[in-house]
Write a structure and sequence with these properties.
450 residues; mainly beta
Length: 450
């Protein structure tokens, strides 16, 4: 239990004023996911509800005395009357699960990271009006004040949040020039909230640091535009590194722990294996605790690299089928409930693909596990949001994509239709403990809740 390791871990205080003591509660992190095969690290955050109040964030490797859950953390109120707590669970250097809850200091709080993530049985329905820019790229960010959506399109960015059960919007930072090609949520500075990386085809990627419920422009990364951005803790030092890709180039940028990045040219090289990189995804395919890399191309075959201890990548031709695809998006996510990352591919103008991880090799299971004909997708989000244990999915497509319900064994069946959309994320937008779907449509950002 953390309470016997207070000296090593410290005590979170969200005090609003110096010297305040207040009451204390115990924050418990619980999970029935196996450690370390399904969870090997986590990041715990607690923040005052008041924007001017304090925030605590700390990453922990689930090893040694912490190689089990539950664990507990003492949280002192200080000058805060209310707080918000959250936890992010990682596997192989990549976030895989999260939970959050309000804290009123009237009693202890438990954040659960269950192996079986269930939602309500009710059918999803839109809540409120569409808000924000049309046809945006989306990313979700967890932190002080709860979950927010960052919606970015050429020349405009908006932060979408829920107040009094209705979606609202406020302006985000200035968008770099050019068409938006990627928006990525990643904790770059180790405070457990999600910062944002925005990539366009007209400028170097821009880093936006989360500051409370808003974002502050922290400057560009690299010297020029890229086609895609991915993130993972590739070297096991507790902070997220970045992979940038475009054309025939893949680059690894190592994090110094505070959100400063330096390119490591020796750790990752495309080596003539790619010519038109359009998407990347990172996850631990082979279960060795180190993230691996898959790159998709605009017409070329998928390519893979296996991560090595220390953060280097070695080519892995056998990890993915060498089938040419015009890849729009890649997502490594557990689609069949076995805790290993599977590969979801959105293909431009063609049916989406689903590759299942078989001991480090991705096997095409599209015909077996997807409804036929498989949908054409701009993007696909996967999470547990109905009343079954199996992961579910929502497809964003020009014609309106299916809502897919997961069955034991990993098959996905259509159960409804989402509005036509350019992008989709599945998150707990209203912080009520159940997953919602958020879509970027021609009319703005639409929130579907159960």
């Amino acid at each position: 239990m953390w309470c016997r390791l207070v000296a090593a871990i410290g005590v979170a205080s969200v005090a609003g004023g110096a010297g305040a003591c207040g009451d204390a509660i115990t924050l418990t992190i619980a999970s029935d996911r196996p450690i370390p095969t399904a969870l090997d690290a986590m990041c715990v955050g607690v923040a005052d509800r008041a924007a001017s109040g304090g925030q605590f964030g700390q990453a922990y490797r689930l090893t040694g005395p912490l190689a089990m859950l539950p664990q507990t953390l003492r949280v002192e109120a200080g000058g805060a009357s209310e707080a918000f707590a959250w936890v992010r669970g990682d596997r192989g250097g990549v976030p895989v699960v999260s939970a959050s809850a309000p804290v009123d200091f009237g009693g202890d709080v438990t954040l659960a990271l269950p192996a079986c993530a269930k939602g309500p049985a009710d059918a999803p329905a839109p809540v409120g009006d569409a808000v924000g820019p049309a046809g945006a790229r989306l990313a979700s960010s967890q932190g002080q004040g709860g979950e927010v959506i960052v919606a970015v399109t050429a020349g405009a960015a908006a932060i979408v949040d829920v107040t009094d059960r209705l979606p609202g919007v406020r302006a985000g930072p200035a968008v770099p020039p050019g068409a938006v090609v990627a928006v990525l949520a990643v904790d770059v500075d180790g405070d457990c909230d999600d910062d944002i990386v925005v990539a366009t085809d007209g400028a170097a990627p821009e880093l936006w640091r989360r500051d409370g419920v808003d974002f502050v422009d922290a400057g560009p990364l690299g010297a020029g535009p890229v086609a895609t951005v991915g993130a993972a803790d590739v070297d096991g030092d507790g902070d997220a590194d970045l992979v940038l890709g475009g054309g025939s180039t893949l680059e690894l940028w190592r994090n110094d722990g505070g959100g400063g990045f330096t390119r490591d040219a020796a750790a990752l090289a495309a080596a003539g294996r790619v010519t038109a990189v359009s998407a990347v995804a990172l996850g631990d395919l082979d279960g060795d605790g180190v993230p691996d890399l898959v790159a998709g191309q605009a017409g070329g075959p998928l390519e893979a690299w296996l991560g090595q201890a220390g953060g280097a990548f070695l080519p892995a031709d056998a990890a993915v089928p060498a089938v040419p695809l015009d890849v729009a998006r890649l997502t490594l996510v557990d689609a069949d409930g076995d805790f290993d990352p599977d590969l979801v591919v959105a293909v431009r103008g063609a049916a989406m693909r689903l590759y299942i991880d078989r001991d480090g090799r991705l096997e095409d299971q599209s015909f077996v596990r997807l409804p036929q004909p498989a949908p054409v997708a701009n993007a696909v989000a996967v999470a547990g949001w109905d009343d079954g244990c199996a992961p579910d999915a929502v497809v964003a497509s020009d014609a309106g994509g299916p809502e897919l319900s997961g069955a034991p064994g990993g098959a996905l069946a259509s159960e409804g239709t989402a509005p036509a959309a350019s992008d989709v994320v599945m998150v707990d937008l209203d912080d009520d403990g159940t997953v919602d779907a958020v879509l970027a449509t021609a009319g703005g950002v639409v929130w579907l809740a159960r």
